[in-house]
Amino acid sequence: MIDKLHVLNVIDKALEGTDKFLVDLKISSDNRINVAIDSDSAIVIDDCIELSRTIENSLDRDAEDFELNVASAGLDSPLKMKRQYKKNVGQELTVTTFDGETTEGKLLEANDEHITLKLQGRKNMHAEPVNIPYSDIKTAKIIIKF
């Protein structure tokens, strides 16, 4: 099986000194490697290709066959890192907490302890912003509007 720590070290070294960062790394028992990356600015296809080549060159296909997928964390992907929240200040989010409560609002702030949402809807027009600690967030997704 592919060594996850080895792949993680290769990714960390490849992204070091850039505004790109690892969001998720999954390696299945049948050696399917899935990497999701994000950036403080933007991810382009060339970023994914370059990282894919770097990872592939660090592995030995003769020793173990593998499938590799490197992609950007898409708009429809849940936010997982504090850095992603900070990048998306100003966006509207749907946040579900571990107690099952779902809240929608505009992300006003993201600091090291919590996020601050301005609640959506007429009944919440004059409501105070709500702070939600990261430790309480089960999932958070950007609301995509067309």
Give me the secondary-structure topology.
Elements: H1 4-15, E1 20-27, E2 32-39, H2 45-58, E3 67-72, H3 82-87, E4 92-97, E5 102-110, E6 114-119, E7 130-133, E8 137-142
Parallel strand pairs: 2-3
Antiparallel strand pairs: 1-2, 4-5, 4-8, 5-6, 6-7
Helix pairs in contact: 1-2
Summarize the structure in words.
Helices cover 22% and strands 36% of the residues. It folds into 2 domains: 4-72, GMP Synthetase, Chain A, domain 3 (2-Layer Sandwich); 82-142, SH3 type barrels (Roll), CATH 2.30.30. The protein has 3 helices and 8 strands. It has 146 residues and is α+β, with helices and mostly antiparallel strands. The longest helix is centred in the middle third of the chain and has 14 residues, at 45-58. The strands form 2 sheets. Strands 7-6-5-4-8 form a 5-stranded antiparallel beta sheet. The model has no long low-confidence stretch (mean pLDDT 93). Strand 4 (92-97) and strand 5 (102-110) form a beta hairpin.
Q: Could you give the count of β-strands? A: 8
Helix content: 10-25%
Low-confidence stretches: none
SSE arrangement, N to C: HEEHEHEEEEE
CATH-derived architecture of the largest domain: 2-Layer Sandwich
Termini separation (Å)?
43 Å
Helical element count?
Answer: 3
CATH structural fold name of the largest domain? GMP Synthetase, Chain A, domain 3
Structural class: alpha+beta
Total domain units: 2
Q: What proportion of the residues form beta strands (DSSP E)?
A: 35-45%
Sheet of most strands: 5 strands, antiparallel
Average per-residue pLDDT, rounded, comes to: 93
* Biggest sheet, spatial arrangement of strands: 7-6-5-4-8
Radius of gyration: 18 Å
